[in-house]
Design goal:
The structure holds two protein chains of two kinds. By secondary structure, chain A is an alpha+beta fold. Chain A has ten helices and seven strands. Classes of the chains: A alpha+beta, B mainly beta. Chains A and B meet through β3, β4, β5 and β6 of A and α1 of B.
Chain lengths: 281, 320
């Protein structure tokens, strides 16, 4: 029974290492965090370590090592491979613990660009559990492929599923992965959602409100651009019936199905009463 | 464009495209919402006597009657001798009767991240748009500061009510209890946390000049909105607004309500996940930093540092 448990850990570790390798190679981490945090510079060694951690060469090297260990766990039952895996997970636990204390603003990068959320206790607990699994796998007599081929071992696949579920629960990368795959809508409400100006401009230029009024614009450079909760507003100079007016566009900041509204108001210096006609497009 | 003109221009454009919200029916049981003024005045002391204080405010000269019931603060309880020409002052009239309730002389608030700390002085980064300042900590205040700031070391937050002096601000008392987290700590606020119609938390004050205004923690960094690029997301789910937007602030301790324009990015306030205990314990998080005159007009005491607040973000003023 103990042997079967150990064999299951080999499969788990191999799967995790291969997933980490693929994630690091396929999804690049975003731009590195600044070397100061709100005016407080990072100590020299920590700054160098951060720079090293964010270098692509380092990332690819770690990914290849992880991939190599993952494949080795599948094809061989060599003790040296198991020992290297245990040491790698122990080292990862130390790194993640240090990051949690020293860089609370940064992600661990364990799964490349998916690991951008700051390191919390869950990440440390996950690394600890993998280290424990790697220690348990030290004495596993069979390689991963051999375990899969063994019909009697399939009963332990239930344990593997439970462990994988626990791994998912402790992984902040899963929601990021689902959002990336379009399986989960970013639930951030439009009032708080970060909406880049480029996104607003793309939505505006593609809207019927823009094309319907584009001819009357005096300048393509907006007079004012600001945000009010779910709307980004853009005011443009325009001319209507020979009179200077302002076109005000309101572009939704929602993640999907963005609406665009437009209204025409007198130019600021014009004394005439508000035209104030608003349409939703 | 001057801030007031920009605010009115944005309001006009916004109402045209999104529609103006109707004013709600007044609630006779509630304290009527008021403009920030004349709830308080802020300016420079022009002249003072035991019976009269003359202030130069942004709206002109103001004469305020003083009496022996007027409380004067100048780094502690003072008297009319502290009302010297040239000093800055914030004065709050009595509520519902003539006379001046309280006068604060040369109040300064220092909130930010500790850059370096020694027993006699603390260097504080006030944020990207407020610079760095050195606060002198007198020996008799140091113990009091340490009680509320157990981590007086670089990277942690600092907040003190100070009094202005020729050599820089001098700490008088801690503003609030130091949050246990580092300034750079991210909050546990879920990205998909819903934005309620009104938010409960704490309101503090900052040195934002003599006009009514507020530093709001969630100002958009894009376009001309006026936000800080590296502002943290804060620990209260607030809607993203702009400089020139208006919010309605309610002081839960005094019942006063006012609509206040956003005049500055409150990225420093966003770093504080603290509470106010002026009247009960507020939920965690700084909703807004008010200018001294706005804070005093809403019934807040500058020397206390905060009040339990409710913030409403729409263009109308709600019945409280």
């Amino acid at each position: 029974m103990v042997t079967a448990f150990q064999n299951t850990q080999v499969l788990l570790l191999s799967g995790v290492l291969l997933a980490a390798c693929l994630a690091k190679l396929a999804i690049r981490a975003p731009a590195p965090a600044p070397d100061h945090v709100h005016g407080v510079p990072l100590p020299g060694r920590l700054r160098q370590a951060t720079a090293l951690r964010h270098s692509r060469t380092m990332s690819v090297t770690v990914a290849l090592v992880e991939g190599g260990l993952g494949v080795a766990l599948l094809v061989t039952s060599q003790f040296s491979v198991r020992l290297a895996t245990a040491l790698a997970f122990a080292g990862a636990t130390w790194v993640v613990s240090e990051l949690r204390v020293r860089r609370p603003d940064a992600g661990c990068g364990c799964f490349g660009g998916l690991s951008v959320q700051h390191v919390d206790r869950r990440s440390v607990a996950r690394a600890l559990l993998f280290t424990a699994a790697a220690l348990a796998a030290l004495g596993a007599p069979r390689a991963g492929f051999a375990v899969l081929r063994d019909g009697h071992a399939t009963a332990w696949l239930g344990l593997l599923v439970v462990e994988l579920a626990l791994f998912c629960l402790l992984s902040p990368e899963i929601p990021a992965l689902l959002e990336r795959g379009g399986l989960r809508r970013a639930g951030e409400p439009c009032e708080r959602r970060h909406s880049p100006l480029e996104e607003t401009m793309r939505t505006l230029r593609a809207s019927a409100a823009w094309t319907g009024h584009e001819e009357s614009l005096v300048s393509a450079v907006p007079l004012d651009v600001w945000r009010e909760g779910c709307w980004r507003l853009l005011a443009y100079r325009a001319v209507s019936d020979g009179r200077p007016v302002e076109l005000v566009f309101a572009v939704s900041t929602a993640a999907k199905s963005r609406r665009v509204r437009v209204a025409m108001v007198p130019a600021e210096d014009e004394p005439s009463p508000a035209i104030g006609k608003s349409t939703t497009v | 464009m001057p801030p007031n003109r920009r605010e009115s221009a944005r309001r006009r454009r916004r109402d045209a495209v999104l529609g103006a919200l109707p004013d709600p029916a007044p609630d006779p049981a509630a304290d009527p919402p008021s403009a920030v003024r004349p709830g308080a005045y802020a300016g420079t002391v022009l002249d003072a006597s035991p019976h009269l204080l003359v202030l130069a405010t942004p709206d002109g000269e103001v004469r305020l009657p003083l009496s022996d019931r007027t409380s004067v603060w100048h780094g502690g309880d003072g008297d009319s001798a502290a009302l010297r020409p040239g000093r800055t002052a914030v004065a709050r009239p009595h509520r519902g009767r003539p006379g001046t309730d309280r006068v604060w002389i040369d109040p300064v608030r220092v909130s930010g991240t500790i850059l370096s700390a020694a027993p006699t002085a603390v260097d504080v980064d006030l944020g990207p748009h407020r610079g760095v300042v050195q606060v002198a900590v007198p020996p008799h205040v140091y113990a009091q500061i340490r009680v509320r700031h157990p981590r007086l070391e670089p990277g942690y937050l600092f907040d003190a009510v100070c009094v202005r002096s020729p050599g820089g601000p001098v700490a008088v008392a801690p503003g609030t209890s130091q949050p246990g987290h580092r300034a750079d700590a991210r909050t546990d606020l879920e990205p998909d946390a819903a934005v309620p119609t009104e938010s409960h938390g704490t309101a503090t004050w900052f040195d934002g000049g003599d006009a009514p205004g507020a530093a709001y923690p969630a100002v958009d960094a894009e376009g001309d909105a006026g936000g800080c690029a590296d502002a943290p997301r804060g620990c209260v789910p607030l809607p993203v607004l702009s400089i020139g937007s208006a919010v309605t602030v309610h002081n839960s301790c005094t019942g006063r309500t006012a609509r206040v324009p956003v005049t500055e990015c409150g990225c420093v306030a966003a770093r504080y996940c603290d509470r106010c205990v002026q009247c009960g314990t507020s939920p965690r998080g700084r909703l807004i930093e008010l200018t001294p005159v706005a804070f005093a007009a809403l019934g807040g005491d500058l020397d206390k540092g905060c009040f339990n607040a409710i913030l409403r973000h729409d263009r109308g003023t709600r019945r409280w």
